[in-house]
Amino acid sequence: xxxxxxxxxxxxxxxxxxxxxxxxxxxxxxxxxxxxxxxxxxxxxxxxxxxxxxxxxxxxxxxxxxxxxxxxxxxxxxxxxxxxxxxxxxxxxxxxxxxxxxxxxxxxxxxxxxxxxxxxxxxxxxxxxxxxxxxxxxxxxxxxxxxxxxxxxxxxxxxxxxxxxxxxxxxxxxxxxxxxxxxxxxxxxxxxxxxxxxxxxxxxxxxxxxxxxxxxxxxxxxxxxxxxxxxxxxxxxxxxxxxxxxxxxxxxxxxxxxxxxxxxxxxxxxxxxxxxxxxxxxxxxxxxxxxxxxxxxxxxxxx
Length: 303
Description:
- By secondary structure, the protein is an alpha+beta fold.
- It has two domains: 6-124 and 286-298, 3-Layer(aba) Sandwich (Aminopeptidase), CATH 3.40.630; 132-259, Aminopeptidase (3-Layer(aba) Sandwich).
- The protein contains ten helices and twelve strands.
- Helix 5 (144-154) packs across helix 9 (243-255).
- The protein is globular.
């Protein structure tokens, strides 16, 4: 390969038109790496760029006591290099990362394979479901556990609405979340919702109980043919009615036969992973990449 220069590009100098064209042509394109998405999500991000935007890698970083370090933002499962890098390209990029940052904890995309570099890798699992088949074919692949849950849900007069408002969704999420998001984190989600909905890139599904109360909701966001189940929440009543099973089943039913790939984002929590696998989702491996070359007095640095 003709070795092209890898440049460190500060945020202000990034050509977002060229950046997004690079993503448009990338087989491993992900919504998380879109310039607008990073803008809404990160207080600051820079980039490594090879050649004339032939390859790009967003650098999501923070600074503490003068030390800059890479971290993985919330609502952003995978980043790394785009388009799919060769091992040589990956090696060059990660060498440049290690040269500029003393600490990193980031997730690489599933198409970026491990290479020899500073630090180590940990395998993680995402779960994907192709929606190209008919609903009858996909429903035939549901697990017995999922079928039982859907049977229970069918006993209640649940109502699905495929376009609830961002305001209603956010109020519901704030009220029912188990892991509490800070106001700053909620604002970032609010910003992503507003932009995605205004550009017809997102949709919020809601399930209402027999008493006409919202009891489950999920925000889906699309990048080309990949639809990501980005943020979902159920109330205690929704869990009782198996409303999330009902919601996902109805989403699959409405989109069956389309060339969409439903990205559940996986989960390290066994019960949540079981929910997704029960709909026939297949595993996709990606890698968490970490290294720590901080001086001894700053080993405490964490994201």
